[in-house]
Prior knowledge:
By secondary structure, the protein is mostly helical. The chain contains ten helices and no strands.
Amino acid sequence: MNHEFSKMISMLRHERGLSQKRAADDLGISQALLSHYENGVREPKLDFVIRAGEYYDVTTDYLLGISPHRQPSRFPEIKKNDGEFLCYNNALVIHSILEEIGDECLSRLVWEYIGFSLYVVLSHLRRPEHTLGPMIDAAKMRSVSMMFTRMRELAQTPGVLPELTDQLLRQWYPEEYESVCRLEEQIRDMIDAIM
């Protein structure tokens, strides 16, 4: 057991303004045992960790210091074959590649472009009658133009942009590689259908 649990249950008890005696009684243990847990002298059994999570209305992951979130995510779990999974994995790959390149300007431009796409979806979900389409398209085109210009500038300096071959992508991102390929294939199919 890590020391996070000791800190967390002590902090949560203090947040609620509870005495050790009161919390111990509520949790069905002796005050001495709760003191041992809070001071890291003893490790609790799993059933106590679960009971403490329920008592303080937090997840066991939060109690153990695994998650910074007191409550579980409101977002549904992404299934491995969903389009969301493809986008999520590709966002992780893009983030990692941008960190590897280390160019703040390029990172800002890439996330600005992705942000525009997310904004378009969100704004139309919120207000389907939204009529800013042409302005959003113009701003997105400006963003993509600036992003590609920056990529061309970086490509002129040898070694700045990694050569992202299939072999390198498979080596760097073994778990995400299939998602990268599937997304590329889906987008190519969509482009072919338009042409």
